[in-house]
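Q: Structure tokens for this one, please.
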Amino acid sequence: KTTLLNVISGLFKPTLGTVTINGMSVGRETKQFVSYLQEKDYLFKWMKVNDALKFYKDFFYDFNESKAISLLKFMNIQTDAKLKSLSKGMLEKVALSLTLSRNCNLYILDEPISGVDIISRDKIINAIIDNLDSNASMIITTHYVGELEQIFDEVIFLGDGSIIEKGDAEELRIKYGTSIDKIYRKVFAE
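A: Here is the predicted structure, written as tokens:
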């Protein structure tokens, strides 16, 4: 899963097959179309939140600083806070705020609510819902299917490098007669 996301985001080259974004093979040119929230921490611990904002502003021409500041306020994150003093949940909120503040065609969120408390999860989910751009696509990987399924249009279940089940979320609910969360549990219990 993570390798696939790294290929889509342009961090890795595919070893087999092709991936295209906006009709172009993934590479340097397509990175401008993708905003990627990696599961691992990628911000420097010496930074303050303000430094992370400046870093994104300098690095990404499509970064909307005022949107990021607004999201950080919504998340109750002070811009003068030191990253090393923030909890895992707060760091996740900072990273998500930065990721969602780019003007991209594709947003990739790798496990955006893993390892964070329930209050942080709710804030993160609300931020994702409130910032869905109807002109953009979003790929979300999660084991917390039940908490995020309200925003799923399409679902793909991956296991051992293969697609186990996929389809329109509503059609899958009808096909199985249950929620996406219960489908997920059934598919991976077999």
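A few notes: The mean pLDDT is 91. Helices lie at 2-9, 49-59, 65-74, 88-100, 118-130, 145-148, 169-176, 180-189.
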